[in-house]
From TrEMBL:
Membrane-spanning parts: none
Origin organism lineage: Bacteria, Bacillati, Bacillota, Bacilli, Bacillales
Source species, domain of life: Bacteria
GO molecular function, one term: acyltransferase activity, transferring groups other than amino-acyl groups
Pfam families registered for this protein in UniProt: Esterase
Coiled-coil region(s): none
Name recorded for this polypeptide: Esterase family protein
InterPro entries attached to this UniProt entry: AB_hydrolase_fold (IPR029058), Esterase-like (IPR000801), Mycobacterial_A85_antigen (IPR050583)
Length: 266
């Protein structure tokens, strides 16, 4: 199936960067228009990497290329280094890059649908945070978001060993500044629950041996208290690729594309 390594200049980051794109082979799996006709464009999953990885990691550690072809979905994997999908206090505007520039560039360069109901985000760890942030903060753009072993509480002590204090502050500022801001998923969920706009479908999973397990349970409790729809799954597993390979396949089965051949329960 077509696999593209894209090197391009980012107007947002003001530097050269990269992303990887997978396209299905079968044009019969193009997304459908509301009248049932073919759009000529693929539904798209924006698949996000974790803190210590880059845009190539999903291809190297999972079967995402095979899964994407099976389920008929394009996959866009951008590189944000250690930027936590955030407009950094002292650094690069990775939130604007991933939520605005990457979709715009990808849709202009490849046959990808721009319709909300055909666009989704998923990711692991830091990328789980980023994917749910995209769904919660840009619900008009993304119909679903999925986080695996997500770093969902960015003011939690569970993340302290991942950063030197100065790196955290370069990204978010102080924890006091971060709590309640648009980088806080708990606050974003509250704003979404209070809004009159579209509400994306949400999926969350975490291994019971994962160091982020308690943070994930706390986020789950918060989402359910707000009355938002979220499918939660857990099971044996740590912060590791065997768990995430199974999670990404499960997500592709779950994505809300009832017209797609091979679609699973929604």
């Amino acid at each position: 199936m077509p696999l593209f390594q894209c090197d391009f200049f980012s107007d947002t980051l003001k530097m050269a960067t990269s992303m990887t794109v997978i396209l299905p082979r079968d044009p019969s799996k193009f997304a459908k228009e509301p009248d049932g006709s073919s759009s000529g464009k693929y539904p798209t999953l924006y698949l996000l990497h974790g803190l210590s990885d880059d845009h190539t990691i999903w291809l190297r550690r999972t079967s995402i290329e095979r899964y994407a072809d099976e389920f008929g979905i394009a996959v866009v994997m951008p590189n944000v280094h250690r930027g936590f999908y955030t407009n950094m206090k002292n650094g690069f505007d990775y939130w604007t890059f991933v939520s605005e520039e990457v979709p715009s560039f990808a849709q202009a360069s490849f046959p990808l649908s721009a319709r909300r109901e055909h666009n989704f985000a998923a990711g692991l760890s830091m990328g789980g945070y980023g994917a749910l942030k995209m769904a919660l903060r840009r619900p008009e753009m993304f119909a679903a978001g999925a986080g695996f072993s997500g770093a969902l509480d960015v003011v939690s002590e569970s993340l302290d060993f991942l950063f030197e204090k100065r790196e955290y502050e370069r990204i978010f500022g102080s924890k006091a500044e971060t709590r309640g801001s648009d980088d806080d998923l708990f606050r974003l969920a509250e704003k979404l629950a209070a809004s009159d706009g579209p509400v994306p479908k949400l999926y969350q999973c975490c291994g019971t041996e994962d160091f982020l397990y308690e943070d994930n349970l706390r986020f789950l409790k918060h989402i359910r208290a707000l009355g938002l729809e979220l499918l939660y799954e857990e099971g044996p597993g740590g912060h590791e690729w065997g768990y995430w390979d199974a999670a990404i396949r499960r997500t592709l089965e779950w994505l809300p594309l009832p017209e797609r051949v091979g679609a699973g329960p929604v």
